[in-house]
Amino acid sequence: MRNLKALEAYLEVATLGSVTAAAKRLQLSQPSVSRIIQDLERDLGQKLFVRVGQRLALTQQGMLLRDDVERALAGVAEVWERAQEVANLRTRPVRIACISALAFGLVPHAWASLSHSVGAEGARRIAIQTDTPERVRSSVLSNDADIGATSLPLQHRDQTTHWFGSAPCVLAVRADDPLAKEQGPIPLSAIKSRTLVEMSNRRGLPARIRQTLKNNHIETGGLIRTNSTMNALALIRAGAGGPAGTVGVVEPVTSAGTPLDGIVTLPLALDIPYSFGVISHNATQLSETAAELITALEQAAHLLVPGFKLHTPDEHQSLITQLALLED
């Protein structure tokens, strides 16, 4: 418990930049918090803070520690919350880890379809965490999430793949872009010499998009990189590429589930597939609500995502091979 208090004090000082403010938040005396931080630094053998003017700033070592401390304290808080739920016979929230595309595109609609009814377990509750595909899969394997909604690959010996499917990428343009008047499909040649917003990831879908453009000899006039489709859509809407106009070849789920005013998405003449699905741990006994959410996510994909196609389980490996070839 002493170590837990020390980490809480460290995180408050790191957040507020002041021992005095942290002490007030923790309802402790200022000398007590100062002593806790000094003891923590002594135990770790590292200086965690340095004074910059009137504030305390994290050292490099202190910055490296912060994310781990936040995760650890969040885990403790979750355990305590679960203990209270058990004591009060309350149903635990469905914990879903998902990539941002599915968090924006499918999860809100799927949950809304369930939220107006009460299941056999009582009132429905959900906890949503967004992360990278690798960390989503890791969260499921470590039982930090009941289900995961992420891009391929999905199969693992300790995981169950409930469903997965694919849909073609789309071209995103501003509503006042000349291309917005077209019905599509739009040839890739239409984006030559245009400023392109692309994903910064080096593997997966971004690599497939880059390789497809290269194979078709499409050279853009400028480049903006980001790590989320929602960022890309916002940049396109703002005209961040200048007078020539900004476009993006993006996965179709974000814009389908959360359309942005001022953005038009168009089908492409060439199919660049985006594949995603839902997984859980083999050892996890899913609640009724979690099982219903998995089904609702599949239904939302069919309803919202243009060109969505469901695959059978035995297609997983062949699809992975096909996608890998598109990245070379």
Automatic annotation (TrEMBL):
Example GO biological process: positive regulation of gene expression
Pfam families: HTH_1, LysR_substrate
Keyword Transcription recorded: yes
UniProt entry keywords in alphabetical sequence: DNA-binding, Transcription, Transcription regulation
Domain spans labelled HTH lysR-type: 1-59
InterPro entries (UniProt xref): LysR_HTH_N, LysR_subst-bd, WH-like_DNA-bd_sf, WH_DNA-bd_sf
Single annotated GO MF: sequence-specific DNA binding
Family: Belongs to the LysR transcriptional regulatory family.
Listed name of the protein: DNA-binding transcriptional LysR family regulator
